[in-house]
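Table S5 (text form). Sequence records supplied for joint modeling of the four-component complex.
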Amino acid sequence: MSSRRIAKEAGTSTMVVYTHFGSMSGLVREMVHEGFGRLASAFDRINWSGDPVMDLALTGRVYRRMANENAHLFSVMFGDRALRGFELSEEDRQYGRFNLVPVVECAARCIAEGRFRPADEYLVAHHMWLATHGAVTLELHGYLVEPCDADRCFESQLVTLMLGAGDTVEAATESVRASAEAFARMFVASGRPSLAGDGLDGGGGRRERTPSESR
Amino acid sequence: MSSRRIAKEAGTSTMVVYTHFGSMSGLVREMVHEGFGRLASAFDRINWSGDPVMDLALTGRVYRRMANENAHLFSVMFGDRALRGFELSEEDRQYGRFNLVPVVECAARCIAEGRFRPADEYLVAHHMWLATHGAVTLELHGYLVEPCDADRCFESQLVTLMLGAGDTVEAATESVRASAEAFARMFVASGRPSLAGDGLDGGGGRRERTPSESR
DNA sequence: GACGAATCCCTAACAGTGTTATGCTATATT
DNA sequence: AATATAGCATAACACTGTTAGGGATTCGTC
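The corresponding structure-token record, covering 430 residues in total, follows.
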């Protein structure tokens, strides 16, 4: 992604970037905000059920899906990748943290219904976020392979997270399993099968890398 | 970090990078391997105790310390930051995964002693890694602020991770507390107070960012 | 409708980047 | 001692983000 390439593909000159976004960083910042908005609307499309633990697991699945389908964008959103000199500002991070709101509400319901141990719902939501983010990040960067591949890690991690928060083995296992079905219903069966949007991510992400590319 | 700046500070020309490392990517790769080695020797310096849960928490603390003291290097090691065109190769990632070995052994001891539920120790070690990595990553990128700052998140996450693996609230709390003391003894009291090494990280990391820098 | 103003965009250039080709200079080898 | 080789410097190429200056187009207003 470079200003000259953008100009070439758009059939214009590099100046359009500067008149519309101020700089390349400005363009990246706009993309990051778009990504946060996309994540927020994905959370909004979740139909909350009567099982808060299942709903919590569902937010994790949506987060992972979003990350995988917008891999490059996701990396920039959470500061992982320094794209064209862009660095996250405190305002940008605030945009990101805002997406925790539905997770906090979910955690509060889990605690209120006695599924989770009494605790600060913000802290519980953070635990979910941190662990899920770590799993997604390492998955994206290719660190999770057989026999502990990303799917296996993610599924079992969902259960252990619920256990760590206070749920029982049986209840957590069942809720996580049910969340997988709800997730499938939500994205496979719906008319909106993807969180990827309109090519904001340049087609990168999950493709295989050849060794020659790395040197 | 650029070839010309390196050359200038070293009082040579840019060619030294190419004769010694092949390319800028090659230099970064060497730094990454150095970073993995540094993490491995940090794990090696841990004196394993009779409490495997405490030891497991200790590896998490060492991981976090290492990340904070080598922030930029850490970001490159785990694929977060694309530095000068460098991309992780499968071989590089294998170097990284190798650092999980002591964590896996720790997890196995936790299971063998009945502190953790019977499970695949590799998977348990991965859960620890994923969650800790997420916490560290988001801490490094400034996402953890009051009231859920990095310290609070990390400490409480350690406990919930042990609970998720099967430990009891009382035992986990005590082991995590004890690990903090062991950690302090290990790094504050020892003759080697830092994991930072010799300026491989360019002095970045935890310094404050000014708003003007981000645009 | 006509004029002023603002906006948008192109071309050209500057400073920076990684990288390569060429040649020189020391050191090491035989 | 003669040769081979390794290491480094210079200069250049192709690329990057960014800025300055000059046209063209559109908009608002009289």
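Note: DSSP finds eleven helices and no strands in chain A.
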